[in-house]
Amino acid sequence: MHSFLFCRFIANGGRIIQKTVSSFDEVIDDYDLIMNCAGLRGGELASDPNVHPVRGHIVRVWAPWIKHFIHTDDTHYFLPQSESAAIGGTRQLGRYDLVPEVHESERILREMAERLPALKGAKILHEWVGLRPYRRPVRVEAEVIICKGKQIKVVHNYGHGAFGVSLSWGTAVYAAELAQQALNAKAKI
Ligand SMILES: Cc1cc2nc3c(=O)[nH]c(=O)nc-3n(C[C@H](O)[C@H](O)[C@H](O)COP(=O)(O)OP(=O)(O)OC[C@H]3O[C@@H](n4cnc5c(N)ncnc54)[C@H](O)[C@@H]3O)c2cc1C
User: Fold this and answer.
1) Domain FAD dependent oxidoreductase: where (predicted)?
2) What fold does the segment set 53-132 form as a domain?
C-alpha cells in the first residue's frame, strides 16, 4: 500500500490482520463488507470455477552491459532492471507446481540468446516460478451472498492473469468505488 494511504488508513482506525481465510464464513461476523482480492485463490473463496493458474518461469541474469528491453512475444522477453535482468519465460495453463526446472531455464536463456547474442555468457543469478491468476474476464463486481443465513456484501477483484501489475491501477479504484456504493446502500447491492 502507498505509504500516504497507509498512514491515512491507520489514522482513521484501520487495522491490518494477516491470516489465511478458508471461507467467507470465518469473517462475516466481524465486518460489514468483504473485499475478495485473493488472486488465484479468489475463485475458491467465491466458489467460482473459472480461475486457473498460468505458470510463469523467469530466469534472472547478470548482464549489465545490455541496457535495452526486448519483447518479441509473450514467452520471449528481456527486462533489464537496476541490479540484474529478468528473462521470460513460460505460460503453462493449469500447472500449480512452483519448482523451476533446469531444462526450462536453459531453454529460456538459449532462446533469448538467439534473439539477443550479447546475452551469451551471462550468469544465471536466480530462477523463479509464479502462478498468474487467470480468468476471462477479470472479475471486478459486487454481489450479495448468503452465509450462515445472513446477507453479506462482497466486492470481488481477482483474476488479473498476466496483467495484474498494469491493470491494478484501474481495477483497484473501481473495486473501491463498488465497495463505497455497497456500504452506502441500505440493504441490497
Ligand atoms: C511470471 C509472472 C510474470 C508476470 N508479469 C507481469 C507483468 O509483466 N505485468 C503485469 O501487469 N503482471 C504480471 N504478472 C501478473 C501479476 O503478478 C498478477 O496479475 C498479480 O500479482 C495479481 O495480483 P493480485 O493482487 O490479484 O493477486 P496476488 O498478487 O496473487 O495476491 C493475492 C493475495 O491474496 C492472498 N490470499 C490468497 N488466498 C488467501 C486466503 N485464502 N486468505 C487470505 N489471503 C489470501 C495471497 O497471500 C496474496 O497476498 C506476472 C505474473 C507472473 C507469475
Assistant:
1) 8-178
2) D-Amino Acid Oxidase; Chain A, domain 2 (3.30.9)
